[in-house]
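Thread: Newbie trying to understand structure tokens

Hi all, I'm a second-year student working on a class project, and my supervisor (Dr. K.) asked me to get a predicted structure for one chain before our next meeting. I've only ever worked with sequences, so writing a 3D structure as a token string is new to me. If someone could post the tokens and maybe explain what I'm looking at, I'd be very grateful. Here's the chain:
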Amino acid sequence: MTDDDTTAHEPAGRFRLLAAALAGAVAGFAALAVAELASAAVRPEAGPVIAVGGAAIDRTPTAVKDWAVRHFGTDDKLVLELGILAVLAVFAVALGVAALRFRRAGAAGVALFGVVGAVAATGRPDSRGFADAVPSLVGAGAGAALLYVLAGRLARRDRAAGARDGSDAGAGAGRVPAGDWDRRGFVVAASAAAVASAGAGVLGRALNGASGRGAVASRDRVVLPAPGSPASAVPRGAGPRIAGISPFITPNDAFYRVDTALVVPKVDATAWRLRIHGEGVARPVTLSFADLLRRELVERDITLTCVSNEVGGPYVGNARWVGVRLAALLAECGVRPPSRGGPADQLVARSVDGMTLGSPVEEVMDGRDALLAVGMNGVPLPFEHGFPVRMVVPGLYGFVSACKWIEDIELTTFDAYDPYWVKRGWARKAPVKTQSRIDTPKPFARPKAGTVMVAGVAWAQHRGIDRVEVRVDDGPWQQARLAAEDSRDTWRQWSFPWQATRGGHTLTVRATDRTGRVQTDERTGTVPDGASGRHSVVVTVE
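---
Reply by user tm_fold:
Sure, no problem. This is what the structure looks like when written as tokens:
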């Protein structure tokens, strides 16, 4: 029986296994840190974690994505990144242990992960070719080399060789006993590698952060001109002062964000360009950010809704947008809607991160306030919400209308091209469904008996809300008080003074839009064109 055969049964052998696991972890950490530093020479999105994460998002089944958004909300990307790091850590530890007996194979395993990262980076919709593969390959090379070196420090010394050089049992101080492994050398090498890797990672993160400073500076310099068509003042009474109800205007930092970008694109407004081309575009054009600001700006209050919003969910918000009329810009390019003989019925918007969204040309050009937005609630768009330019189209779910970081508009047909979400099972056309939500009382609240104010919001963008009703348990529907209406493109606040009696109760709300359509009680999920059903909460009155 060899020394290695008893490794798992000896205290020293178990310590050697732990050291091997540590070697794998250090090598994995070094690979990621060096890749982070290398990505600073390419772009942050080329880093292996971001590249693999983006590829995972692209290939994740729709139901899983919907589950992640529903349970993690805007933290879904953080959860994905942490999951990727956890998986990499497990494999790195396993490769370290494997390298005890198969030194070259362990190092090759680390290199293989670099290939996976490189393939993921070059396969993304926004890939810039082989350059995006470089960080993963360089990082993996560094990690593989380090694991090979550390595994060498873990190798047992041959007893015969020790006898020949006089280092058998009883050897002098400073020598490695035969049959043992180089503990001191391993600790020194692993410690030095960890420190160097940490430095490389910190430097890479700093350089990647600095790469967006030009974009930040360009946004800081933006002064939005006064809109030629300002929004009407919000009517008095549009936002009743009721504790627990959503504010009429959603602050920028509280506005929902649902997208696939693991790294928020930071686009320099001075370098940004928008190209408009395709079928029926008689006069293709490329516009700069300054070109847009020289046009007449329109200011409107518009409520946006994400198709991933469950009944009663949080992914809806109302903001005051400033932008250029998209229909007017398209008309100047010679575009006509299908109802007037235009050959294109789909507008494909492309983002700088490779996302594609398809909007119906007819709705974009039917007179609604479809905008290329440059401002949000009185300031230039935040980066998280699409700076420098995004689309905003009232009445359509965001996945078919609200392209952030937009850089290209192509006119085509629904038959000729399927954008990102359509390829993954979502609908081609998705008008917002009539919905309402109870904001207060919260589920499982325990209000006191007496008058309890039930309140919330209702929306049916571009149709408007005509009526909201509340039902207590299985009782009759009772009409709620509607707040003043801003426009048919914004949500509407409502309230209902309930004379609450002790015991458990279920409160349910439904809305009716201006077309007379009553919010359905048929419960459906978000796929393929938005959730339906009525929101209810259970409370216990004390």
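A couple of things are worth pointing out once you decode it. Residues 73 and 258 are 8 Å apart (CA to CA). The first strand starts at residue 273 and ends at 278. Feel free to ask follow-ups in this thread.
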